[in-house]
């Protein structure tokens, strides 16, 4: 499992693997992320040979010819696979693979609604017979067509029914990986608002993390803070579960010391979801309309623990514990289900 702490923010240039000849692609790193020095830029050049036998030419229906990638051994395909499977590769290129036209449209619908200019599509990969979705034709810097076999290989899915489009997108500026060199006062810049922040304490399952991000967007929470041990929000399964929510709200990855700075700066209340059971040394409040109403004007962080071990010791000590009443005899709910209930009940302006 790749951890979110491995994801850093960098920039990379766009590339256009659309010619039959050998093409050199340049990836320019942001000056704040270097392999050897923080004061020097570095540039990686990757040569992608594209033999004629790996491509075929067909018509796009308008009398124009287009090049179609048909071989899974094409270097561009290998680049896409590394983006999908490797957090460190995504980090080094500052790019992520988004599979499916639905999450891609969700991301750009958000961009249009909030005039967010931080979302950049480097390349749009289309099934060879698919038409470009309305609104995406002007969004991509480069457009590549691929055969069904190649689309299956890149997406990791067995069917092309839901993978008519795949996008290579830059990791958004709304994602921030903070380190120990960050100044304490920098926390003022992490979120536009700190009225409601979701804190994920070691959430390792990408499906759960993606679902929680999607719920946080749906209920208008201000952002998400990822504590160590949480998975990469740009993991392929997390992106699929979030339907592009990773691009739609501020996400900060850091340690408890960074979170403490945020809480101290904005005088935030710390709540943590935890089932009530015997042996707890702290009282547990019950999540209820009255409880939520009493916190309507209070800035707060909601902490949710990992699927297996629950809340960390630090979270148990620092937070007021809150449980969800259950008529059934199950000990606890799945973290994404419980999180959805907490996010709904504690959402801004929820009465």
What does this structure look like?
With 351 residues, the protein is α/β, with parallel strands linked by helices. The chain contains 10 helices and 16 strands. The chain has helices at 75-85, 87-93, 101-114, 148-155, 206-218, 236-242, 256-266, 289-294, 313-318, 335-345, and strands spanning 23-28, 43-48, 55-59, 65-69, 95-99, 121-127, 143-146, 165-170, 175-177, 196-201, 223-226, 251-253, 269-273, 284-286, 300-305, 320-323. The strands form 3 sheets. An 8-stranded parallel sheet has the order 9-12-11-10-15-13-16-14. Helix 1 crosses helix 2 (87-93), helix 5 (206-218) packs parallel to helix 6 (236-242) and helix 5 runs parallel beside helix 10 (335-345). The radius of gyration is 22 Å and the shape is elongated. The two termini are 39 Å apart. Residues 1-65 have low confidence and may be disordered.
Summarize the structure.
This protein is α/β, with parallel strands linked by helices and 351 residues long.
Order of helices and strands: EEEEHHEHEEHEEEHEHEHEEHEHEH
Q: Segments where pLDDT lies below 50 for 5+ residues?
A: 1-65
Globally, the shape reads elongated
Main β sheet profile:
8 strands, parallel
């Amino acid at each position: 499992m790749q951890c979110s702490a491995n994801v850093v923010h960098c920039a990379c240039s766009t590339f256009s693997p659309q010619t039959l000849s050998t093409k050199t692609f340049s990836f320019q790193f942001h000056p704040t992320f270097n392999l050897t020095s923080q004061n020097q830029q570095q540039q990686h050049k990757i040569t992608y040979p594209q033999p004629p036998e790996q491509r075929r030419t067909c018509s796009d229906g308008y009398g124009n010819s287009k090049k179609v990638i048909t071989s899974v051994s094409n270097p561009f395909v290998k680049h896409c696979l590394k983006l999908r499977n490797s957090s460190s590769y995504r980090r080094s290129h500052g790019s992520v693979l988004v599979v499916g036209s639905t999450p891609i449209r969700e991301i750009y619908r958000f961009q249009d609604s909030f005039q967010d200019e931080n979302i950049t599509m480097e390349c749009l990969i289309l099934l060879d017979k698919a038409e470009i979705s309305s609104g995406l034709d002007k969004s991509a810097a480069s457009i590549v067509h691929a055969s069904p076999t190649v689309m299956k290989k890149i997406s990791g899915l067995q069917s092309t029914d839901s993978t008519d489009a795949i996008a290579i997108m830059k990791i958004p500026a709304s994602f921030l990986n903070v380190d120990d060199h960050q100044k304490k006062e920098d926390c003022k810049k992490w979120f536009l608002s700190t009225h409601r922040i979701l804190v994920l304490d070691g959430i390792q399952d990408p499906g759960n993390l993606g679902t929680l991000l999607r719920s946080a967007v749906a209920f208008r929470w201000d952002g998400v803070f990822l504590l160590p041990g949480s998975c990469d929000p740009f993991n392929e399964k997390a992106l699929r579960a979030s339907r592009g929510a990773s691009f739609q709200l501020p996400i900060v990855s850091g340690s408890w010391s960074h979170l403490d700075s945020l809480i101290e700066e904005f005088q935030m209340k710390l709540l943590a979801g935890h089932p009530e059971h015997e042996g707890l040394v702290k009282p547990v409040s019950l999540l209820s309309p009255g409880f939520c109403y009493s916190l309507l004007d209070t800035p707060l962080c909601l902490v949710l623990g990992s699927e297996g071990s629950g809340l960390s010791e630090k979270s148990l000590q620092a937070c007021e514990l809150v449980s969800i009443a259950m008529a059934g005899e199950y000990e606890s709910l799945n973290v994404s289900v419980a999180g959805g209930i907490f996010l709904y009940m504690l959402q801004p302006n929820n009465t």
